């Protein structure tokens, strides 16, 4: 990405060149592995951290036990990571008022200073001497990611979001009107929204919490950020990095809550509510959307609603594809981070003519995946996030076990004795509409289905089946060699995935390279990691200036008496 120049009141600014953050490998014997594992050890040896709300820069601790949430480590339940001091309704109200007080100064701050804050935060997060190992370790132990998975998330993607958002904002600010009638000058201003934005983030990506709060802030908005109660170890550190980078008090208020609905109850009822930046499940998003619709008459403006939600992501194997590539991409897509990525591969379509061989290879490879502690370098994946998730995922597995059209051919064991462990599981089904072919499991469960490729029309029929099976439209991949068939898949599956892959897995979108988001019930598809997203957080004002005075109100076409 080339750097961009922008004219300001006092000269021209040019952002540093923005490129994707290089990833560390954490290979055996590397100094980065030693550094990261040392931070994990510190977390294991520490007393539980007391995590406050942070409102106008003030730390708020609660004495009322009903507001305090104790978080066990997902892979080692005996270890308590932190006590979260959640916001009650009064604290949330106070945070709204504080953000509105901070608004004018933030909005008026020149773009280059806002960019400097987020670019500095990115550098602090990138540096092993400051946050890199600490926040990766927090993501590992707190959210159950292995070394490389946390590097993808809380280093690479988070840093990319901060840097690329600064770049996209500066690009947007440079966009001006090119057409002017004689004697006039037209221009546009990129204003922040009137009021405050609520950012509500999920547990599964530290980077998403950062983007939900920081993208609207980059455009001059003030934010109430409600992180997920199960991702606080990393999200709190991220907030500290933003403070260290110079983010003014009150611009982003850090308000976790023990009861999530308390946040919505206050925020969505406030007349100054101007926008929701949400990532999480479709069910929660639909609930919040509905509340906003009901409350519409209360608001000073029509709120912007940006929501990225669930998925039921597919891999389609064409009979002539590269088999090794298909197997390896499917294993990564389905089982990395225990399938807890919104883009995780969860339904697979395999041609009957090759089915037995492919199924056996998938099973063979899946059996090699070790699940264990996130800081054990031999673990491919670790525990799922919490008991609620564990119960939901094991419920899907148990129902599949009892379903005559399904057979569990790999994994299927679950235990919550030490941590919330679910084995990478493959379900074979003869019913393309069985529960785990249609619904989001959000766990390490892949369902495979053999489609009949003996007829000439097999591809048309299979594409129709893929397109119509699930209510979601997030990600999907096809594996094929034949260009005519690739082209047919791309065309027929146009609306079945907002992020579509050819010979690559359904996961792994990179900021600045594959803008991310899906349609149908997967969200508003406003594309995180792109200029489209930043456009949602600004309300453009058009200004026309006329240089020459009007001498008379009449028109030549109207004959004057
Ligand atoms: P979730 O819906 O349970 O929670 C998301 C956030 O909403 C959390 O902060 C939660 O506390 C909050 N919340 C829940 N009820 C609320 C209420 N009534 N009022 C206000 N806030 C409320 O989702 P999760 O389990 O944290 O995340 C997993 C889900 O997120 C999956 O469905 C996954 O597909 C989706 N996801 C989507 C994307 C994407 O980009 N499309 C990315 C990551 C995760």
TrEMBL record:
Its EC number is 1.2.1.88. It catalyses: L-glutamate 5-semialdehyde + NAD(+) + H2O = L-glutamate + NADH + 2 H(+). The active site is at residue 308. Keywords: NAD, Oxidoreductase, Proline metabolism. The keyword Oxidoreductase applies. One of its GO terms (cellular component) is mitochondrial matrix. InterPro entries: Ald_DH/histidinol_DH (IPR016161), Ald_DH_C (IPR016163), Ald_DH_CS_CYS (IPR016160), Ald_DH_CS_GLU (IPR029510), Ald_DH_N (IPR016162), Aldehyde_DH_dom (IPR015590), P5CDH/ALDH4A1 (IPR005931), Proline_metab_enzyme (IPR050485). It holds the Pfam family Aldedh. GO terms for biological process: L-proline catabolic process to L-glutamate. Gene3D superfamilies: Aldehyde Dehydrogenase, Chain A, domain 1, Aldehyde Dehydrogenase, Chain A, domain 2. One of its GO terms (molecular function) is L-glutamate gamma-semialdehyde dehydrogenase activity. Residues 74-543 form the Aldehyde dehydrogenase domain. It comes from the Eukaryota. Pathway: Amino-acid degradation; L-proline degradation into L-glutamate; L-glutamate from L-proline: step 2/2. The keyword NAD applies. Belongs to the aldehyde dehydrogenase family. This is Multifunctional fusion protein. The lineage of its organism: Eukaryota, Discoba, Heterolobosea, Tetramitia, Eutetramitia.
């Amino acid at each position: 990405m080339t750097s961009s120049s922008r004219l300001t009141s006092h000269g021209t600014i040019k952002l540093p060149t923005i490129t994707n953050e290089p990833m560390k490998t954490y290979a055996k014997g590397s100094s980065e592995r030693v550094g990261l594992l040392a931070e994990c050890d510190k977390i294991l040896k520490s007393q539980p951290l007391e995590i406050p709300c942070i409102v106008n820069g003030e730390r708020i601790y609660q004495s009322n036990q009903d507001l305090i949430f104790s978080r066990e480590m997902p892979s080692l339940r005996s270890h308590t990571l932190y006590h979260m001091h959640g916001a009650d309704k009064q604290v949330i109200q106070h945070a709204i008022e504080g953000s509105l007080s901070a608004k004018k100064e933030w909005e008026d701050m020149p773009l280059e200073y806002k960019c400097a804050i987020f670019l500095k935060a990115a550098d602090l997060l990138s540096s092993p001497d400051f946050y890199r190992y600490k926040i990766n370790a927090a993501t590992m132990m707190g959210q159950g990611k292995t070394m490389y998975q946390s590097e993808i998330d809380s280093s690479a993607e988070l840093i990319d979001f901060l840097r690329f958002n600064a770049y996209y904002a500066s690009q947007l600010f440079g966009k001006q009107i090119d057409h002017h009638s004689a004697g006039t000058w037209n221009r546009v201003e990129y204003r922040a929204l009137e009021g405050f934005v609520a950012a509500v983030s999920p547990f599964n990506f530290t980077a998403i919490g950062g983007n939900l709060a920081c993208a609207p802030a980059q455009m001059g908005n003030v934010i109430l950020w409600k992180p997920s109660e199960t991702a606080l170890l990393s999200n709190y550190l991220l907030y500290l990095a933003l403070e260290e980078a110079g983010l003014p008090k009150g611009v982003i208020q850090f308000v976790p809550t023990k009861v999530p609905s308390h946040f919505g109850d206050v925020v969505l009822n406030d007349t100054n509510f101007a926008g929701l930046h949400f990532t999480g499940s479709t069910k929660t998003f639909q609930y919040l959307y509905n509340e906003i619709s009901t409350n519409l008459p209360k608001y000073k403006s029509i709120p912007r609603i940006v929501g990225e939600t669930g998925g039921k992501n597919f891999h389609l194997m064409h009979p002539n594809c590269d088999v090794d590539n298909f197997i390896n991409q499917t294993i990564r897509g389905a089982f990395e981070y225990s399938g807890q990525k919104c883009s995780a591969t969860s339904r697979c379509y395999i041609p009957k003519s090759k089915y037995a061989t492919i199924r056996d290879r998938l099973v063979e490879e899946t059996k090699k995946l070790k699940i264990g502690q996130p800081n054990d370098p031999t673990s491919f994946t670790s525990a799922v996030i919490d008991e609620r998730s564990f119960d939901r995922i094991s419920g899907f597995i148990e129902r599949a076990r009892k379903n005559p059209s399904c057979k569990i051919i790999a994994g299927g064991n679950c235990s919550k004795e030490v941590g919330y462990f679910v084995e990478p599981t493959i379900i074979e089904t003869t019913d393309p509409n069985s529960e785990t072919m249609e619904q989001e499991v959000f766990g390490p469960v892949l369902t495979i289905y053999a489609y009949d490729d003996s007829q000439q029309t097999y591809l048309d029929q299979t594409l129709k089946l893929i397109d119509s099976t699930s209510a979601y439209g997030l990600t999907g991949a096809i594996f094929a060699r034949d260009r005519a068939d690739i082209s047919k898949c791309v065309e027929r599956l146009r609306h079945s995935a907002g992020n579509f892959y050819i010979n690559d897995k359904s996961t792994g979108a990179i900021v600045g390279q594959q803008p991310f988001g899906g349609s149908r019930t997967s969200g508003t598809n406003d594309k995180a990691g792109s200029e489209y997203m930043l456009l949602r957080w600004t309300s453009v004002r058009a200004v026309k200036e006329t240089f020459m005075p009007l001498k008379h109100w009449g028109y030549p076409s109207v004959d004057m008496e």
